[in-house]
Every structure is written in structure tokens, then in C-alpha cells.
Write a structure and sequence with these properties.
Blueprint (H helix, E strand, L loop, with lengths): L1 H22 L14 H29 L3 H9 L11 H23 L4 H21 L2 H6 L5 H20 L2
Length: 172
């Protein structure tokens, strides 16, 4: 069981690394002009897709390693999926909070005011990294691998445990 968790953790950490690699395309955007620098544009596109696809693939492999474990099954029974669980771990909460100013700066700089290109690139990078982080850090796989308990679901688990104890005492 522990060996599965360690292997899943390696896959999960590698997927985070590939998602970060995918986000490194943002600093290349100003120079990735297909007419002036076609090789750099192809490199930037390849970097994005390789990072994204390998990140998803390795995340799937980490999920496959833990999906039949008891702790994952308990999380699946009591919790929501990671895409809908905002701030369910400390890391996920940080990613969710950091996403808000990143997306706001990106929208403001695009539609309403002129921001320096460096500020826009940083805002776009923060937005992409925190978007990836939301899905990885709030997911059940991450919680299972890192043994993170979600505070808001503990009350639900206690109620379910109390119900089963009452049923056992009543003989149902």
C-alpha cells in the first residue's frame, strides 16, 4: 500500500513539474512571432503541448495507483471532485486565492487599461499556474497521496459514523 502511494506521489509531483513546464510558454509569447521567429513559435507551442499532455498523463497514472485504496474510496464517498472543491487543501487554497488577482489583472490589462507588458506576462503566468494548481492541489488524488483531510467534510463523516453506530446498537 505504501509503495503504491510513493509511486503515485512521484507521478503526481512529476505531473506538477510538467504543468509548470507548460506554463513557461508565457514568457516566450512576445518573441514567438511566426513571421519573425518561426522556430521559436514552434518551440513555444511544442513546450506548451508537451507539458500539458505529459502533465495530464502522469496525473492520470497517479490516480490509477491510488483509486482502489481505501483512503481514496473514503474521499470519493464523502467529498466533491477537485474541480468543484475550492480551497480544500492549504495548497489548493493558495492557488485559488492567487488565481483571482492574476485573472483580474489579465482582464483589466486586455480590455480596460494599458498595463506594461511585463505585468501582463506575469499576470498571465500566475493565472495559468494557479489554474493548474487548483485542479491538482484540490483533487482527491492529491489529498489521498499527501493524506490531507478536508476540514469541512469531517462533520459529514462524523454524522455518517454516528448513524452507523446508532444502527448497530439498534440491530438494524
Amino acid at each position: 500500500m505504501e509503495k503504491k502511494r510513493q509511486t503515485a506521489r512521484i507521478f503526481n509531483d512529476a505531473s506538477i513539474g510538467f504543468f509548470l513546464l507548460s506554463s513557461l510558454v508565457v514568457p516566450l509569447l512576445p518573441a514567438a512571432d511566426t513571421e519573425k521567429h518561426p522556430a521559436l513559435a514552434i518551440f513555444a507551442g511544442g513546450l506548451f503541448w508537451i507539458g500539458l499532455l505529459w502533465g495530464c498523463f502522469l496525473y492520470y497514472l497517479s490516480y490509477r495507483k491510488v483509486k482502489k485504496t481505501r483512503s481514496y474510496q473514503n474521499l470519493a464517498a464523502t467529498g466533491r471532485i477537485g474541480a468543484l472543491s475550492f480551497g480544500s487543501t492549504r495548497e489548493g487554497l493558495i492557488a485559488d486565492i492567487v488565481f483571482i488577482p492574476g485573472i483580474l489583472l489579465s482582464i483589466l490589462g486586455t480590455f480596460f487599461m494599458v498595463l506594461p507588458s511585463a505585468v501582463m506576462l506575469i499576470a498571465m503566468w500566475v493565472t495559468i499556474v494557479s489554474f493548474y494548481g487548483h485542479f491538482v492541489f484540490n483533487g482527491r488524488t492529491y489529498k489521498c497521496i499527501h493524506k490531507r483531510k478536508v476540514k469541512r467534510y469531517r462533520a459529514k463523516e462524523k454524522r455518517q459514523t454516528a448513524d452507523t453506530e446508532e444502527q448497530l446498537e439498534e440491530g438494524v
